[in-house]
Amino acid sequence: MSNKESRVNSYVELEDYTGNIVRSNGSKSKAKFNKTNDSIQWAQWTWNPVTGCLHGCKYCYAREIAENSQFKGVFPAGFTPLFRHDRLGAPKNTKINIDPNQPESKRVFVCSMADLFGKWVPKEWIHEIIRATKHAPELEYLFLTKNPASYLKIDMPDNFWLGATVDNQVKVEKTIEIMRSVKSGGIKWISFEPLLGPITADFTGINWIVIGAQSGTRQPDGTKIDGFAPKLEWVMDLVIQARKAGCSVYMKQNLMGKVSGQYPGMGLIQEDPNIMLS
Q1: Residue 123 to residues 16, 20, 154, 254, 265, Cα–Cα distance (Å)
Q2: What kind and span of H or E run contains 67?
Q3: Which terminus has fewer CB within 10 Å in the chain: N or C?
Q4: Residue 149 sits in a domain of what CATH number?
C-alpha cells in the first residue's frame, strides 16, 4: 500500500510493520506536535509518527498506555508498531515561538511511544520521518532507541539528538562503542532511565546523559510493576564519570519522588549539552 493518506468515510487507513492495514478515526484538523508533560522536561514537544514497540521491556510505560482500552481511538493497533503517516505534517503545521531563554522550546521528542530504530521498523518509515523534519530545520529532534546500530546505516542531520537507552552494566560498553562510531554533528546521548544498577563506563565521545527512576506501571496482562529508585551512590558515580569525560548530566525529577512546598527536595543537576559545548 502507498504511504499516502487514504480517508474512507472519515477513517484513515494505516499500515503496521507487517503490512497489515489498520483503520483509525480520521481527523479534520492538521497534524501538530503535542506539548510534553512533567515526565519529559528536556523537550517541550512530542511527535509520534510511529507508535508501538517489540522489545518487551517489563516496565514499559508506553505499552501500559497504548493497550489501555480508554485510548483505543488514539492507538488503534494497541502496541503493535504502526506507521502514522497522517501525522507527518506536524513539523510543517506546528508554529513554535522559540524562546532563547528556554532551549527546550525548540526540542521535539520523536516517537516517545515507540522505538523508531527497532530492527522491525521498515526503513521507509524512518526516511519519511527524516524528510518531514526538513520542513522545520530550526528545531532539534530527539530520538531514543535500544538498537543504536541502526544509526550507523542512516545519514543523520546535525539537528538530530541521537540517544540510546541503557538500564544495566551489561549493555553499556557496547552501546557507547556504537554511539562513538555514529557519524553525526548532533548531540549523542545516553538515557539511564530506568537506572537499575551501578554503571561503570567511559563517556568520552558522549555529550549528555540522562538519569531517571523506574515508574510504577500496571501492564496489560495485569502484572503490577512497582516503581524503583536507584541508589544515590549509583547516581553520583555516574555524575563523576560523566564529569571526567566532559559530558553533561541531566537528572530527571522522578529521582526525587514526591516533593512539595514544605519538602522541596534538593536541586538536581539539569545541564544543557549545547551550553556545555559552546
Answers
A1: 13, 17, 9, 34, 44
A2: none
A3: C
A4: 3.20.20
